[in-house]
Amino acid sequence: MLIPEKNVGFFVSYNSAGSGGVNRYELFQAFLNRYFPAPVEVEAAPPSDFTKKAGRYTGVYEMNRRSFTKFMKLAALLTPVKIKATREGNLLLVMPAGLGTKAFVEVERDLFREVGGQETLIFREAEGGQVRHAFYGAFPEMAFVKLKGYQTPSFQFLLIGLSVVLFLTAALGWPISALGRVICRRKRFGNPAPKAARWLAGGMSALFLLFLLGLAVVLSDLEQFFFGVPSVFKISLALAVAASVLAVGVLAFTLLAWTKKYWTGCSRVHYSLILLAALAFIWVLNFWNILGWKF
């Protein structure tokens, strides 16, 4: 932190993630209160028409101080910054990872001041007048970038969730269904397809599910990355690559299924949905730099 006009600089650093030390921003605020107390200001009232224009500012943002080309871009998915409108006519800034929640009131166009405090929240418009960036006084070393719909965690998790459901129907549903036909001696319906078609889709789905399981294990202990890239993570990435290769075969069999009328119409639709889930999932992996070994 710098106060150039006073020739004052303030620096605090810890050498471990769990240092248990005083929050450096609280320490800085206490320093300011002691040596550079701010004059008491009259609390501003929210503009009467703010509810109508609050939508310009609300949404999901990401911190621009992040990885853009490596797998650590994934951290942005887990640390969104949210800005919401309140009933009182203010903006509520919700920081990730327990960094706090504060309310702000508009004092000028695109300029907000903390309710009951001195922090500022400033917005910058892009071409066309739409808000694209936000700047929070407590974190002057970074900007918040407003996310588009497809970039938001809610949309990304929706794609992942739908894909997982369809992968489960292939990796578990088909084997269970096949076992039921054997036990009950039921006949197949429709024009039969080569067994490789469902083996490919089922294997692809199983590999994607195993990748997610491995990723969940790795993300449960992020301190592993302080000492390098965990082996479990490398193996998980290999599973995702292998599944993506199998997706090429699933695409070929999908085209054949519709050309040669394999199975029944519903089965062909189901197989096609599994392919779409795979393509969507591969897009998600590539978007977050976890398709391949981007270290």
What does this structure look like?
There is one protein chain. With about 300 residues, the protein is α+β, with helices and mostly antiparallel strands. The chain has three domains: about 1-35, no CATH class; about 45-145, Beta Barrel (Lipocalin); about 150-285, no CATH class. It has helices spanning about 25-35, 50-55, 75-80, 155-185, 195-220, 230-260, 265-285; strands spanning about 1-5, 10, 60-65, 80-85, 90-95, 100-110, 110-115, 120-125, 130-135, 145. A hairpin with a 5-residue loop joins strand 4 and strand 5 (about 90-95). Helix 4 runs antiparallel to helix 7, helix 5 (about 195-220) runs antiparallel to helix 6 and helix 5 runs parallel beside helix 7. The two termini are about 30 Å apart.
**Rg, please?**
26 Å
The span between the termini is 31 Å
Estimate the helix proportion, in percent.
Answer: 40-55%
General form: elongated
Count of DSSP helices?
Answer: 7
Q: What strand order characterises the main sheet?
A: 3-4-5-6-7-8-9-10
Helix and strand sequence: EEHHEHEEEEEEEHHHH
**Kindly state the mean pLDDT as a whole number?**
89
Structural class, by secondary structure, is: alpha+beta
Describe the sheet with the most strands: 8 strands, antiparallel, barrel
Which segments are poorly predicted (pLDDT under 50) over 5 or more consecutive residues?
none
Percentage of β-strand residues? 15-25%
- How many domains make up the 3D coordinates? 3
Number of strands: 10
